[in-house]
Write a sequence for this structure.
């Protein structure tokens, strides 16, 4: 998904990590990303240190349950598998939920 977002929405949207991690990212990037999505101790600091402005999270990941707390972020999208979270007031990400609704296969542009 990260590569699709990069190709479709760049340069306005940047991803923190994608499948090219062995050649495109500095040492420690994978561990940082895993710590954030696992909601490991210190995850809010890691998220904010890197200037994150949104997060695509699988609904069953620990981060999905942890995000409403210490960050002040809100869920702006949810379907059967993923959620998109962003700081309250982020422009271009209207709240939405498509659970149980047919989707057209087009990534939401905001």
């Amino acid at each position: 998904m990260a590569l699709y977002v990069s190709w479709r929405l760049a340069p306005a949207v940047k991803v923190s990590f994608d499948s090219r991690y062995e050649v495109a990212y500095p040492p420690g990037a994978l561990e940082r990303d895993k710590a954030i999505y696992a909601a490991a101790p210190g995850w809010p600091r890691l998220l904010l240190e890197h200037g994150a402005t949104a997060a695509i999270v699988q609904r069953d990941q620990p981060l999905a349950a942890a995000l409403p707390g210490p960050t002040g972020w809100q869920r702006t999208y949810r379907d059967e598998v993923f959620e998109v979270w962003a700081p309250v007031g982020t422009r271009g990400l209207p709240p939405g939920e498509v659970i149980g609704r047919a989707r057209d296969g087009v990534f939401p542009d905001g």
Q: What stands out?
A: The mean pLDDT is 75. Residues 29-37 form the longest helix (9 residues).
